[in-house]
Amino acid sequence: MKNIQSIAFHPESKEELLPDFTAEFPYIATHAELDKFPEQLVPWHWHRAVELFYMESGALEYCMPGGTTLFPAGSGGMVISNVLHMTKPMAAKEKNVQLLHIFDPALLAGGLGSRIGKKYIDPLLESSQIELIPLFPERPEQEEIIARIRETFEISPQTFGYEIKLRNSLSELWLMLLEQARLLPKNRNRNGKDNDKIKQMMIYIHEHYSEKISVKTLASCAFISERECFRVFQDCLHLTPLEYLTNYRLQVACQMLAKGHRTITEISHACGLGSSSYFGRIFREHTNCTPSEYRRKWQDRDK
Fold first, then answer.
1. Which three-class secondary structure state does DSSP give residue 237?
2. CA 20 to 30 Å from 68, out of 45, 165, 187, 222?
């Protein structure tokens, strides 16, 4: 199981970059130490793989276009393919560990157009009303599923037949989750067009955050009006375009401060946040500390 303390993005699509994820066996297991992420959150992102998780410690909030859900220790859930999501620990100083199975649904479906895919996999992936299947131990019908998710992390890669045993376990869990999906309220809709538009604009920001970016520029890259741009950001991310831009720039700044040795002035300009005085003010507003204090805090952790 790979231990992670940050995430990276594909240079072109800007989907999350999944380490060791290959077409030969499209699956990885990760041990995410969320309290050690420099940004103090997992920023808005998406991936074609599904995300099946168990909260080992701490409490984590999942933010999605359809709303937010809090997952305390002992709970779990599954995020559907290509759904935008952001997660953040509820207590910055609390140990916060999430175990994740991340896999391409094709691992379970088999060949393209298979009966298993059509009958059991596609109905869940193609549902316009499901972003997340939450699981809580106080609900008897979900307690067993959570226990099974936790158990699958104990299947050792050194075990004979590991890949087959893991795939079988994930297939059984998928069937159980499909049953749970039928019980979810049908009042949340994933708008495919909005999903495409917001991703186009997010990709533009990820590629040009160091430059001056206007709402007009963002709207143009998605071929929509400025008014529509505001609506899509609000509906999908619950932020204005400029709030997301500022947040993303600050996330990049946090990574630079935690892992590099560039000066504060160099970082402020590299992130598109202008003068070091403005950068210092807005950074303090978002993190409750100065850039220098933040750098010392995170770089001292590695000593």
1. helix
2. 222
Angle between helices 291-301 and 276-287 (to 10 degrees): 60
> Which amino acid would we find at residue 30?
T
In this structure, are residues 283 and 291 in contact, taking their beta carbons and an 8 Å threshold? yes
Q: How far apart are CA 137 and CA 280, in angstroms?
A: 43
* Among the listed residues 154, 125, 157, 118, the one whose alpha carbon sits nearest the alpha carbon of residue 51: 125
User: For the chain, what's the residue count?
Assistant: 303
Per-residue CA distances from 245 to 82, 84, 277 (Å): 21, 16, 19
Determine the residue type at 142: Q
Distance of alpha carbon 137 from alpha carbon 156, whole angstroms = 25
How far apart, in whole angstroms, are the C-alpha atoms of residue 232 and residue 129?
Answer: 18
Q: What is the pLDDT of residues 47-89, one digit of tens each?
A: 889 999 999 999 999 999 888 999 999 999 999 998 999 999 9
* Average pLDDT rounded to a whole number, residues 111-116: 87
What gap in Å lies between CA 206 and CA 5, rounded to an integer?
Answer: 20
Q: Where does the pLDDT of residue 111 fall: very low under 50, low under 70, confident under 90, or very high at 90 and above?
A: confident
Mean pLDDT (the chain) is 89
d(CA 121, CA 174): 8
pTM across the whole model: 0.84
Q: Where are the beta strands (DSSP E) in the chain?
A: 2-4, 8-9, 16-17, 27-33, 42-45, 50-57, 59-64, 67-72, 76-79, 85-89, 97-103, 132-135
- pLDDT tens profile 202-229: 999 999 999 999 999 999 999 999 999 9
Of 193, 191, 61, nearest to 129 by C-alpha is: 191
- 44-to-14, 147, 206, 249 alpha-carbon distances in Å: 11, 28, 11, 13
Structure tokens given for 214: 């206007």
